[in-house]
């Protein structure tokens, strides 16, 4: 029988039971999700999300580009369309295409999940911010239109500013929102394809044409499940991994 984790005083603890600080993060995640879903297609107010959609598209394209490089390909360009589209062009072999096509949705979902996971700890959120800035800088390097260049530079600058501002006190709330946005964007885009059958020209459509086995909606459903696993797994892992913040905040010495 596996041992039960214990606190310092010998009492047992439930790793998934949230601390007060973690409850705040959970409420923020729920609030961010609700806000994104409400604003997504709301007339006029949906424009509030417009810059966040653009940077999420940039991270989606970064997923394609990163996997193309890892699998031996060469990235030629990344572009972001003002009509909320994006394109990554690269050269490579059949393996490159097989790995790079799913990496748009799955890569941005995974990146978002890392940001969500790290938001449960202040120090971890700073590490996640470094990772985010690096991803944005690489996207800038591959960017071949002004919008892709500008939106990634803007969000990299905001992230760096929040790192510096007031000791990074507000950084984790910003990176958490970007993480939730990245996860939700991928999930909603895949759902849009599954429900409304908007698969023409999509990553799933291209993947189905090249590799078969399932139709585009089938691959979209698989990617949807994986994206949901990333998000739920990030929350559960954050709850289990970061239990020390409350203890550090409540402990101290008096004079």
Automatic annotation (TrEMBL):
InterPro entries assigned: Peptidase_M50B-like (IPR049500)
Keyword Transmembrane included in the entry's annotation: yes
TM helices/strands, residue ranges: 23-40, 103-124, 130-163, 170-188, 221-242
Origin species: Linnemannia hyalina
Source species, domain of life: Eukaryota
Lineage of origin: Eukaryota, Fungi, Fungi incertae sedis, Mucoromycota, Mortierellomycotina
Keyword tags: Membrane, Transmembrane, Transmembrane helix
Protein name: Peptidase M50B-like-domain-containing protein
Keyword Membrane tagged: yes
């Amino acid at each position: 029988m596996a041992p039960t984790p214990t606190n310092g005083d010998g009492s047992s603890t439930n790793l998934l039971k949230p601390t007060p600080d973690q409850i705040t993060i959970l409420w923020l995640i729920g609030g961010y999700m609700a806000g994104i879903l409400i604003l997504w297609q709301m007339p006029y107010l949906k424009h509030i999300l417009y810059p966040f959609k653009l940077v999420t598209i940039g991270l989606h394209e970064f997923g394609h580009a990163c996997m193309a490089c890892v699998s031996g390909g060469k990235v030629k360009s990344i572009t972001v369309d003002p009509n909320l589209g994006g394109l990554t062009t690269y050269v490579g072999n059949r393996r490159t295409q097989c790995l790079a096509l799913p990496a748009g949705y799955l890569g941005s979902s995974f990146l978002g999940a890392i940001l969500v996971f790290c938001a449960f700890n202040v120090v971890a959120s700073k590490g996640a911010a470094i990772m985010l800035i690096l991803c944005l800088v690489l996207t800038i390097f591959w960017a071949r239109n002004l919008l892709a260049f500008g939106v990634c530079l803007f969000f990299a600058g905001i992230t760096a500013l929040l790192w510096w501002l007031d000791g990074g006190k507000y950084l984790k709330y910003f990176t958490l929102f970007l993480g939730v946005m990245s996860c939700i964007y991928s999930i909603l885009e895949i759902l849009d394809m599954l429900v409304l059958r908007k698969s023409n020209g999509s990553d799933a459509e291209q993947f189905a044409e090249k590799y078969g086995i399932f139709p585009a909606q089938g691959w979209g459903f698989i990617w949807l499940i994986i994206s949901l696993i990333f998000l739920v797994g990030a929350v559960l892992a954050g709850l289990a991994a970061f239990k020390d913040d409350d203890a550090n905040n409540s402990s101290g010495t008096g004079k």
